[in-house]
Amino acid sequence: MASPPLLILDEPTVGTDPVLRLSIWSALRQIAKQGTTVLLTTHYLEEAGGADCVGFLREGKILQEGNPGDLMERFSTKNMERLFLTLCYNEEIEKDNVGQNHELTKLNLQTDIMEVDDYATSPNKVGVKPFVDVSKIVDMFSHQSKTEATTKEKWNALLFKNLMVLRRHRVFMFFNAILPIINFIIFFNAIGRPLAGIHVAFNLESSGTPISCPNDIIYICNQPSHSLSLLCHIKHQLEKQEIVLDQFKDAERAVDSVHTGKNAAALSFPENLTIAWSQMDSGSDKQDKVRMFQDWTNRHVAETVQLAVTKSTISYVQNTLETCGAAAGSAQWIDFSAMLGTLDMASHLTMLPAMVVITLHFLALALTADLLVTEKEQGLLQRDWTAGVPTTLALAAQICVQSLIVFIQVSSSVALLVFLYLPTVKIVILTTFIILLQCWCGMVWGAVISLACRTREQVIQAALAIIFPMFLMAGVLWPRTTMPVVLQYLAECLPLTPACDAVRDLMLRGHLVGWGFLRAVIVPGAWISGLLILSKYHILKKLHRD
Question: In sequence order, which residues have a C-beta less than 8 Å from that of residue 19 and are 6 or more positions away?
C-alpha cells in the first residue's frame, strides 16, 4: 500500500474475528507511526479505545471528542460502551425530555451510573446511588425511533442519497446518458444500409483477355451477338450500386471463386448471345442464356445481387427494344410507386424507430437492476428497512432519481428521430410519451428482477431471459406474420410490441394505424401495474421474511 498523508477507512474490522481485528489495528498503528493520519469508523466501541483521538457520533452530531483515556477519566467510566451510554443519557436530558418522565433528573456522572465491578461487589454502597438499569437508558433515547421521521423527510433523504450515488458515479452516469445515441449511430451506420462492396465473378466464353467496356453503350436491335453489350450494361449498372465485378478466364474458375467465398455470385456469358425478337416464343428453348451461380448462405447478399442483375437485364432489354421501334417503357409491365416512404428507402431507416424503443427499454431495465442489486450487496437497502423506510418508498425514490438519466436518454433519442424523419410537433409529443412509458416499464422490470434474485449473476441471467424473447418477437428483425399463431398472440401481449409498432407508424406513416396508441399505452401500463402488485404482495414479503 502507498503512504498517503491521510487514510480514511469505513469499518475496516467489521465481520472479522478477534485475532484478525487485533492484527488490523496493529498494522494501522504501524502506518500511523510512519506519518500517516488514519481516520476510521467503527461500531466496536472497545477497539476505539486504542485510538489516539476518538469522537462519539450520534444522529449526525458529535457528542464528545478527545483522547479515550481522558474521556473515560473525565466521566468516571472504565469502558467505552458505558461512556457512550452516559453521553447519550445526558444528551436526552439536555433535550428537555424530562417532561416525559418527571422522575428523571440531571445525571450525576460521579454516582448515578456504576461500573460493572462496583455493582457486583456493593450494589447499595453508602454514598452511591442505586445502579441505573441500562434498559432505562435505552428507553430514554428510544423516543427518536425509526417511525418518527415523516414520509416527506424519508423521501427527501432517499432522494439525497440516490443523487449522491449519481454524483459519485458521474462518469458512469454520463456514459449511460449518451449510450443510446452511441448505439443508434452505430446501428445507423452498421445495420440495414444498402449493401456495397459485394464481389461478383464473371466470364465471357472464348475470351481470356481483359474486357474493356466503353462509357457509352450502343444498343442495336438486331446485332449478331448481345453478349458483350449486355455484359457491359450489367457491369455499369452493378458498379453504380458499388458491386464489384471480377473477370475470370472461364466459368469453372469463376464458380470456384464462389465456392471459396471470394465472390458472392458468378455470371457466365455465352460467346454469342443472339436474340431474335420476332421469334422469341418459337426459339426460346434453344436460345443461349446467361448462367448465374450464387452463394445463398447469406440470403440478404444473394437477393441483393439477384435483384441488381435482374433489374439491369430488364433495363438492357428495354433500351434494345426502343431501338427496334418499341415504345418507351414497353418492357416494364408494372408501374411501381411508393405511397409511404420511398422505393429506395434503406432498411436502417425503417428499423430505427423500433430500435429506439427497444434500446431505451432495456437500458432503463439494466440501469435500475444494476443500482438496486448494488444497494442489496452493500446492505443499503437493509439499512433503509432498519431505519423504518418502506421498501415501496425506497423503490419510488430510486426510480424518480433514475428518471433524470432516462429523460436525458429519451430527449437525445427523440432529437435524433426528429432530425432524421422531420415529424410534426404532435407526433413528437406522442412518440416521447410512448417511449417514456416504455422506460418506466423497463425500470419496474429491473426493480422486480433485482428484488427477486439473490445475486448479481441471477439478475443478469433473468434480464437476458427477458430481453431476447421480447426483442425477437417485437417484429423488428422479421415480420410477426411469419411466426406461429401462438407466438403472434404472445408477442401482442408483450410491452415492447405495441410500442414498437406505434413509434414506427408515427415516424414512417405520420399517423397511427387503428388502435395503435391505446395498445401502446394499455399493454405496458398493465405490465407496470401487474409487476408492482407482484412486488408488493409477494416478492417484498418473501424478501422481508428472508
Answer: none
CA 51 to CA 215: how far, in whole Å? 91
Spatial strand order of the sheet with 291-294 comes to: 244-247, 199-204, 265-269, 291-294
How far apart are the C-alpha atoms of 492 and 449, rounded to whole Å? 22
Task: Copy the grid coordinates of residue 314.
Answer: 430488364
The grid coordinates of residue 189 equal 451506420
- C-alpha grid cell, residue 356: 429506439
Strand 6-10 to 54-58 pairing: unpaired
pLDDT number for residue 272: 82
**Three-state helix/strand/coil letters over 178-213:** HHHHHHHHHHHHHCCCCCCCCEEEEEECCCCCCCCC
Residue in 387, 373, 375, 378 with CA at minimum distance from that of residue 151: 387
How many angstroms separate the CA atoms of 233 and 273, rounded? 14
Residue ranges in the chain modelled with pLDDT below 70: 1, 95-148, 275-287, 328-339, 341-347, 542-546
- Which H/E stretch holds residue 466? helix 456-472
DSSP code for 10: E
Strands (E), 270-328: 291-294
Q: How far apart are CA 266 and CA 58, in angstroms?
A: 82
Q: How many H helices and E strands in the chain?
A: 21, 8
- Sign of the torsion angle spanned by Cα atoms 14, 18, 24, 29: positive
Cell numbers linked to 230: 449486355
Report the C-alpha gap between 159 and 136 in whole angstroms. 35
Q: Which residue has the cell 460493572?
A: 116
Could you give the CA distance from residue 481 to residue 475 in angstroms, rounded to a whole number? 9
Q: How many CB atoms lie within 10 A of CB 357?
A: 29
Distances in Å between the Cα of 294 and the Cα atoms of 243, 245, 253, 519 are 14, 14, 14, 43
Q: How far is CA 185 from CA 191, 230, 312, 349, in A?
A: 10, 40, 33, 12
